[in-house]
């Protein structure tokens, strides 16, 4: 590791996982930059406050559009590492970031906006597959450009999916929807941990030009196991209502875009179990084995967080 901490530029730093990345970068002492769309009177006040908070913590805020080539190159030349956490509608906009990185010629590592399933090794229903194919385009463009990279497959955002599956904020509801049989194994990683480990691997020479997969054993669980664990912790009992694979596939076929994308995601992860249906290769890295100074929250510990100070529910951006 270098004695001087690398400077990190984050695209999408006000988004769901992006804000975790910014906080992790600050926590680890890295000079941190956020490239954000220009503020307007129509800008969401919560985003304005978030950026003010980042600035008060020493983050360098650069306002600009991805079409501003010179500005992109200029800010990229000031940093060592670029991390993109852009949401689905902007996946292909990362080609502009790649072009700017090529012009700058100084970046030591680029992490494109993956952070979900390992897109090169899974197949999904068409709506979700279209998203994965766009992410593959970005990966191939990074490789073709010869940019030093790390591809991060962080699997499921743990707090996001605990909220989605268990509805812990709704104490009046005693029914939980189960997708498929509920037996498929998934990987639920706390967002704070995903961000901390991502900042680590972004600066780790052993992770350069490799795929890093987040599959800590303590976070592998099925839907039914998750519900049972939540029942034990809360002392409540929940009725399990199963939605069949056939119903999910039909929804994927009939819902308009982009509403059909989440259905495809649910099918791939919770029905087909794509997060656990491949072996981690010799050239890949399973991140939980790398560092001794930080540890993943287990899913058991994450549910304890929900008992004390539950993270707020969130919605993914698909349009």
List keywords for this structure.
319 residues, alpha/beta, five-stranded parallel sheet, three-stranded parallel sheet, 13 strands
Outline the structure in words:
The chain is an alpha/beta fold. It is built from 11 helices and 13 strands. It has helices spanning 16-27, 45-56, 69-76, 94-104, 126-145, 158-166, 191-202, 223-234, 245-254, 260-271, 299-308, and strands spanning 8-11, 32-36, 60-63, 81-84, 109-111, 150-153, 156-157, 175-179, 185-189, 210-213, 220-222, 239-243, 285-286. The strands form 4 sheets. It has a 5-stranded parallel β-sheet with strand order 3-2-1-4-5, with helices on one face. A 3-stranded parallel β-sheet has the order 6-10-13, covered by helices on one side. Helix 3 packs across helix 4 and helix 9 (245-254) packs antiparallel against helix 10. The chain is globular. The N and C termini lie far apart (39 Å). The mean pLDDT is 96.
The oligomeric state is single chain
Q: Structural class of the secondary structure composition?
A: alpha/beta
Write down the Rg.
20 Å
Distance between the termini: 39 Å
User: Order of strands across the biggest sheet?
Assistant: 3-2-1-4-5
> What is the number of helices?
11
| Unreliable stretches covering 5 or more consecutive residues | none
The beta-strand count equals 13
What is the H-and-E element order?
EHEHEHEHEHEEHEEHEEHEHHEH
Shape: globular
* Helix residue percentage: 40-55%
**Arithmetic mean pLDDT:** 96
Biggest sheet architecture = 5 strands, parallel
Strand-residue fraction? 15-25%
